[in-house]
Design goal:
This is Trk system potassium uptake protein TrkA. About 25% of the residues lie in helices and about 25% in strands. The chain is α/β, with parallel strands linked by helices. The chain has an 11-stranded mixed beta sheet, sandwiched between helices.
């Protein structure tokens, strides 16, 4: 898979390193000569250019990319790169970094963004996830379909602890994608039994998050009815 990363700072280089280890072809783009540090990621291609300019993106052959990641420290730049990648070059998947949470509402399909990653929001979500059991934590927002990646740690008092996945009446527009149990990552087959302390990862429509939390949390065990 060919991936272009706009922004060769610490974030962009870190992403590049991870993707290279997984066998992907990486192009790093940055307009600052000081950011071009080929020796730091020698396996990647490097391009000294302004990723907001069509001529630069032509040179980068963006139409050949499967994914574009807008990872600069400037939200305006990330939005422009995302829009150009999607509308001018038809890149199938565009991922954009959100630096200021106040700008998060802009990072949607109107600007060509498929997945918006807000570092401040993700960090605060991980803190919440570390200290909360029974509360739904939003980890990541997907622009298409108004869906989110959410996590909930199943509390011991939950009514569905001990229930098989296939026997739970999940809300519409939600999908259980992974169960993390200790050091194990489990595929949620219908026969898998949910256990207290399981970390459950869902892709869920935002409108269904409250129903999902009610279904899984202590409040249901205390008398809330399932939707």
């Amino acid at each position: 898979m060919r991936v272009a990363i706009a922004g060769a700072g610490a974030v962009g280089r870190s992403i590049a390193g991870e993707l290279l280890e997984n066998g992907h072809e990486i192009l790093l783009i940055d307009k600052a000569p000081t950011a071009i540090s080929v020796e730091r990621v020698p396996q990647a291609e490097w391009l000294l250019a302004d990723a907001c300019e069509i001529t630069s993106l032509d040179e980068a052959a963006l139409q050949r990319c499967n994914v574009v990641i807008a990872a600069t420290g400037d939200d305006k730049v990330n939005l422009v790169v995302s829009l150009l990648a999607k509308t001018e070059y038809g890149v199938p998947r565009v991922v954009a970094r959100v630096n200021n949470p106040k700008n998060e509402w802009l990072f949607n399909e109107s600007w060509g963004v498929d997945v918006a990653v807000s570092t401040p929001r993700l960090m605060s979500a991980l803190v919440e996830e570390a200290v909360s059991v029974g509360d739904l934590v939003r980890l990541l927002r997907f622009s298409h379909g108004d869906a989110n990646l959410v996590e909930l740690t199943l509390p011991p008092e939950s009514a569905i602890a001990g229930t098989q996945v296939g026997d739970v009446a999940w809300p519409q527009d939600t999908s259980l994608v992974t169960i993390i149990r200790g050091s194990r990552v489990l595929t949620p087959s219908p026969e898998e039994t949910l256990e207290a302390g399981d970390e459950l990862l869902f892709v869920a429509a935002q409108a269904r998050e409250e129903q999902l939390e009610d279904l899984l949390s202590v409040r249901r065990a205390e008398g809330s009815s399932a939707s």
